[in-house]
Amino acid sequence: MKRNDVSDVMVKIVSLCKRRGYIFQSSEIYDGLASCWDYGPLGVELKRNIKGLWWRAMTQLRSDIEGLDASIMMHPNVWEASGHLKGFTDLLADCKDCKHRFKVTETQENRTCPDCGGELTEARHFNLMFKTHMGPVEKKGTIIYLRPETAQGIYVNFLNVQAVSRRKLPFGIAQIGKAFRNEITPGNFIFRTREFEQMEMQYFVKKNEAEEWLESWKEERMRWYHTLGIKASALRLHKHTQDELPHYASCAYDIEHKFPFGWQELEGIHNRTDYDLTRHSKHSGKDLSYFETESKERFIPYIIETSAGVDRTLLACLTDAYAEEEDRVVLRLSPQIAPIKVGIFPLVKRDGMPEIAQKIEETLRPHFKVFYDEVSSVGRRYRRQDEIGTPYCVTVDSETLKNNTVTLRERDSMIQIRLRINEVIEKAKKLIGGEI
Ligand code: GAP
């Protein structure tokens, strides 16, 4: 794809998101706040469906994972122990002329401003954590941080969860929640922002089983993206080289997605070794080791982490689903994640058709998110639903009045079948794959 086509597609997707209520710029009436976005009526449904499928895959379909919801603000020593205070930094330099700030690398030779060619200052480390104060007095001892990853809330609760659930290794703890990073170069819509949501799972294992579990989680997580309907050809794994590894990992893979702006990370899968639990044991003075009754051994477990971004997954689903056809724009979202599952229309606004259609709407509503529409031609109503990704539409027409049948139209093929009104629920449940 040429560069212009790329930005064209992103511009069209951003515009569709705003126009149809997927995603709005944050604080728009005040000219917006850079890199912050609000999910509108459709966006919030899509997001909840994605998170729901992740939660189900982790904590319901597997018997070895518990859930957790830890607080965003944590004791400041957590970040000392985790290494984020020291190591979670970007190297930056300022332009002495235009004052713009840039990310640089240790070995970078060209130290001139990419914007104006001016001289750059010495590079310095800039910590990406947002800092604030707890309580009414702003002094050194009251500094706390907004968490840059949800993982630490899991580590500090490792023994709590293990004890109450009476878990033996291997087992996992899953969590979905907000994380914050003062990114230097946010951008590409919701791809890189300063406030975002993560779906993280920490799997506690014996040291000699860590490698095997890393392999197994790599495969399992790739499979999960396929179940979201993302094309296999748009997903790949990338193994970190030694200098790409985060400070806590001995081995890491990224699941990457082919976005319109190129291959980019969707999820990180890391072997975090015994780094985090050892550090928290040392810094808190609390023993976070695990006692294995069979071998009578006490040790610090290794951790295999799967760390996915909710917003990036949502953007991957949207960009993967977006298609332009001759006379329509269509979001080919998987029915499981589509915000609205069924559109229900009377062909015309007379002859009792609206009343029958509204009855069908009432019957379907407890099972699915549905949308009733009687405004403008039925062709336009189909197009409106295609553009937001609604997989099925049910239409009441003159034949309904004669034999109680309706049409069910499928979004991608546009094929319509006829079925009896009392068959609609079962058919829709089967097609959509469960009641979500
Ligand atoms: N606990 C490990 C961890 O946080 P990471 O690779 O830094 O690892 C994991 O982040 C995932 O979180 C990324 O793959 C991405 O999906 C998401 N993510 C990270 N930074 C983000 C940002 N600034 N905006 C949106 N999503 C982000």
From TrEMBL:
GO cellular component: cytoplasm; extracellular exosome; microvesicle
Residues given in the record as substrate binding sites: 103, 149, 196-200, 305-309
Enzyme class: ligase
GO molecular function: ATP binding; bis(5'-nucleosyl)-tetraphosphatase (asymmetrical) activity; glycine-tRNA ligase activity
Ranges that cross the membrane: none
Entry-linked Gene3D superfamilies: Anticodon-binding domain, Bira Bifunctional Protein, Domain 2
E.C. number: 6.1.1.14
Keyword line: Aminoacyl-tRNA synthetase, ATP-binding, Cytoplasm, Ligase, Nucleotide-binding, Protein biosynthesis
Annotated compartments: Cytoplasm
Entries under SUPFAM superfamilies matching the protein: Class II aaRS ABD-related, Class II aaRS and biotin synthetases
Domain Aminoacyl-transfer RNA synthetases class-II family profile: from-to ranges: 8-335
GO BP: any one term: glycyl-tRNA aminoacylation
Reactions listed under catalytic activity: tRNA(Gly) + glycine + ATP = glycyl-tRNA(Gly) + AMP + diphosphate
Residues that hold ATP according to the record: 181-183, 191-196, 265-266, 309-312
Assembly information from the UniProt record: Homodimer.
NCBIfam families: glyS_dimeric (TIGR00389), PRK04173.1 (NF003211)
Function: Catalyzes the attachment of glycine to tRNA(Gly).
Family, as annotated: Belongs to the class-II aminoacyl-tRNA synthetase family.
Name of the protein in question: Glycine--tRNA ligase
Organism, scientific name: candidate division NPL-UPA2 bacterium Unc8
Gene: glyQS
